[in-house]
Design goal:
Distance between the termini: 53 Å
Structural class: mainly alpha
Largest sheet: 3 strands, mixed
Number of strands: 5
Strand content: 5-15%
Length: about 240
């Protein structure tokens, strides 16, 4: 600041270390990864960003292929939701979308409350997916109108100024058509939605609902694994 005469930053924080499959990442252990080697598609690059930004910054970040696959699935759901809203915003619709404005206002308010709570991004992201779930229900029931779709898209754009998951990845012009790699974990949309709902329930300290969701997910053949930083993964049994 003394050299350039301008403010370098407003906040300075120390983030947790990156672990690979619960082990410290280091060259001596042979588990050292670079972003260039790891991320081969635009979706993977955006998913990794979401995975990092949705984790609590002070906690160790435990990376695994399953965690990246889970983040990719979350972004695919978000992309599909945005595309549906965009189609209605562009073409209009018969429904009036009543109630979207109040849902959007609560979403932004809860998101901001999470960010003010020591940058609790897991809590902030949970508020986004509570909004996504509510508006998906409106979309599925043909109750989303042009004004409602525009309000939902405006809300997403506002939150993405913090999350930053919608951008063109340099050097990656074409989106991958399917999940990369053999053995990729394919998680049904409704289970991904339940995982986000459980994050919200935990944030609200609604432990009963969180346990109900865990049992429901296990009955479907998946196990919820809570990882450091407040995030969770779905792993096949």
């Amino acid at each position: 600041e003394a050299y350039c005469g301008c403010e370098m930053c407003k906040f300075w924080v120390h983030n947790g270390f990156v672990n690979i499959n619960n082990e410290k990442m280091s060259k001596s252990l042979g588990n050292f990864l670079t972003v260039r080697d790891l991320l081969k598609t635009p979706l993977q690059a955006r998913a990794f960003r979401y995975f990092v930004v949705s984790s609590q910054y002070r906690q160790a970040l435990n990376f695994s292929p399953e965690a990246l696959a889970g983040a990719s699935k979350t972004l695919k759901r978000l992309d599909k939701w945005r595309d549906r809203l965009t189609a209605i915003a562009n073409d209009g619709g018969d429904a009036d979308g009543e109630g979207v404005s109040s849902l959007a206002s609560k979403c932004v308010s809860d998101f901001e409350a999470g960010m003010k709570d020591d940058m609790n991004t897991p809590r902030a992201c949970a508020s986004l997916f509570t909004f996504v779930k509510a508006t998906e229900k409106m979309l599925n029931n043909d109750k989303m109108g042009k004004e409602g779709a525009e309000a939902a898209l405006e809300t997403l754009a506002k939150l993405d100024r913090v999350l930053g998951v919608y951008y063109e990845v340099p050097g990656m012009e074409e989106e991958a058509k399917s999940e990369e790699g053999a053995g990729s974990v394919v998680i049904p949309d409704d289970l991904a939605a339940l995982l986000e709902e459980r994050l919200q329930a935990k944030s609200d300290k609604d432990w009963g609902r969180a346990d109900e969701i865990r049992a429901e997910v296990e009955a479907r053949g998946f196990v919820i694994k809570d990882v450091k930083g407040g995030a969770s993964e779905l792993i096949p049994k």
